[in-house]
Design brief:
With about 525 residues, the chain is α/β, with parallel strands linked by helices. It has helices at about 15-25, 40-50, 70-85, 105-115, 140-145, 155-165, 190-200, 205-210, 220-230, 260, 275-285, 300-310, 320-325, 340-355, 380-385, 390-400, 415-420, 440-445, 455-480, 495-505, 510-515, and strands spanning about 5-10, 30-35, 55-60, 95-100, 100-105, 120, 125, 180, 185-190, 235, 240, 270, 335-340, 360, 405-410, 425-435, 485-490. It contains 21 helices and 17 strands. The chain starts with a strand and ends in a 9-residue tail after the last helix.
Length: about 525
């Protein structure tokens, strides 16, 4: 039966490392840890102390300082790999992990999968013929020597590179080596690992070559496995589920991605948000579970590529796969209060919160400091909230354990209003129409950066008609957002008219609407 030795490269969050090691060794598997020498010795000592009585955990024979794109990452892996080979003679497979990875299958499933598939799992594409490298250096990664870190020593990195180019200081690739490239997250059989370590003891020239290539963790093991192992014994893929966004950044998974992750045809996933505590707890308990049946749909990557790539007409961002897979639900009601004067909307929602049992959230898509519960990290920035808007709102429904929710939205976010109006849930839109004095518009111009304190008065004055027209256009976009549940209260309307509108909007009694509107200073600047 398969027994996995996990090779963990990490540099932060000692508590998470301890938890990860305990979870993955609870089912009988093993782990060799390399903790970056750049990190605090106190954190390393804490990890060693916590795991010292665990016979299934060992540590790299040596700690070194690691840097992105450097040989140091490969060297650290080799130190941990050698430690694992020596410490765990019964390990049948060696699986490369980082601290951001978590199992999305049980140990029972992983062992059965590896027993049934006697192959090495590693991405291994031809370096020159494939399109694995989309942009930036390609051949230059190999034929020039790279001694400096591109991120921390960019000046020296590019000066050295340009100097070699100018004087033609190229070098040859080892003649018997076909360089391959792919993801650094692999799972190799014991025989393969032992062949690699033995090969390196004989071929110091290969180590010398790769030690001065750029980003060797994407080429070193990929090349050696293909050099030493017959092609039919290699499955050209990783067993770790990871994706890159349309911005070239790794896609991060949050609390609401549990079911999606379990449905993918992989054993692990990367990257799990550090703040996704619920997701981490569920996945941590999953690995040692027994008898779990997994329904593999494996749609994540294709859905993400399609939906993130096509965009949506009239909207800032393409809809993401976790948004389409998680509608708010037909039984839920979302009340959007749209107002350019934030203080007016905030006064109204304060009244709604105090007079009804409907939870209210202020400008979460516009104001970074809006009070929000812990949603696993997805709420930490405005960009995340906007891009994952449906997931955020769904999680707020779940957090408040309610089917009704009030949210404030700025009129500039017509795309957000349109998005929710297109959902299966019942979306109600209430626009607050305010009067805008010249003084208010001047202040608005300064708040949004159209004018500064030293901008001449005549320049600001010329801006005012444009700002008014822009606000009128935003209001028109909200009215055209596509909902039949659009209502409006106006600063110029009498109280009775606005109370009737609030009663219809919230579907509450006339008395309750009067209590909500019992604010003489609602529209006061």
């Amino acid at each position: 039966m398969a027994k996995i030795a996990y090779i963990l490269l990490c540099h932060k969050d000692p508590d998470a490392i301890i938890s990860q090691a305990e979870q993955l060794t609870a089912a009988g598997d093993c782990m060799a840890i390399h903790f970056d020498a750049r990190s605090r010795d106190a954190d390393y000592d804490r990890i060693r102390t916590a795991l010292k009585d665990n016979p299934n955990v060992t540590f790299a024979t040596r700690r070194i300082k690691c840097g992105w794109g450097e040989w140091s990452l490969v060297q650290a892996t080799l130190y941990a790999l050698q430690a694992a080979v020596d410490a765990f003679p019964r390990a049948t497979h060696f699986y490369m992990l980082s601290g951001d990875c978590m199992a999305i299958k049980t140990a029972e499933y992983a062992h059965r999968f590896l027993d049934q598939n006697d192959r090495d799992f590693i991405e291994s594409h031809d370096f020159f013929e494939s399109d694995w490298i989309k942009t930036g250096m390609k051949e230059d990664r190999l034929i020039y020597r790279h001694y400096f870190n591109e991120r921390t020593q960019s000046g020296r990195f590019y000066a050295s590179f340009e100097l070699q180019k100018r004087f033609g200081l190229t070098r040859d690739i080892p003649h018997d080596i076909q360089v391959m490239i792919g993801s650094q997250w692999w799972c190799l059989r014991r025989r393969t690992v032992e062949m690699i370590l033995d090969f390196l003891r004989q071929r110091r020239d290969v180590i010398k070559f790769f030690s001065t290539t750029w980003i060797p963790d994407e080429t070193f093991f990929q090349t050696l496995v293909r050099h030493l192992i017959p092609k039919h014994e290699i499955d050209n893929r990783t067993l770790t589920f990871l994706m890159f966004s349309d911005y070239g950044m790794p896609v991060t998974f949050y609390n609401d991605h549990y079911d999606l992750l379990l449905g993918q045809d992989y054993l692990f996933a990367r990257k799990i948000s550090p703040e996704a505590h619920d997701l981490k707890e569920k996945l941590g308990q999953l690995y040692s579970s027994e008898g779990v049946d997994f329904q593999i749909s494996d749609e994540g990557r294709n859905l993400y590529s399609f939906l993130a790539g096509r965009g949506r007409v009239g909207r800032r961002f393409g809809q993401r796969f976790w948004e389409t897979g998680n509608t708010l639900g037909a039984e839920r009601e979302l009340f959007l209060i749209v107002c350019k004067k934030w203080h007016v909307a905030k006064r109204l929602v304060d009244q709604i919160a105090s007079e009804t049992d409907i939870p209210c959230v202020e400008y979460l898509f516009n104001e970074q400091d809006t009070p929000l519960p812990d949603l696993g990290g997805i709420e930490t920035t405005l960009l995340k909230r906007s891009r994952h808007r449906r997931a955020v709102i769904q999680m707020l429904f779940d957090h408040f354990e309610t089917d009704q929710l009030v949210v404030c939205v700025d009129p500039s976010n017509a795309d957000i209003v349109q998005d929710f109006c297109a959902d299966q849930s019942k979306t109600h839109v209430l626009e607050i129409e305010c009067e805008y004095s010249d003084e208010y518009l001047v202040g608005h111009a300064r708040r949004v950066g159209l004018a500064g304190e030293s901008t001449p008065a005549e320049t600001v004055e010329r801006l005012l008609p444009t700002i008014r027209n822009d606000m009128a256009y935003e209001s028109e976009q909200i009215r055209n957002a596509g909902t039949e549940q659009y209502l409006r209260i106006r600063e110029t309307a009498d109280r009775t008219e606005n109370e009737a509108t609030i009663a219809e909007f919230l579907d509450v009694s006339e008395e309750k609407a009067q209590a909500v509107m019992r604010l003489d200073y609602l529209f006061v600047d």
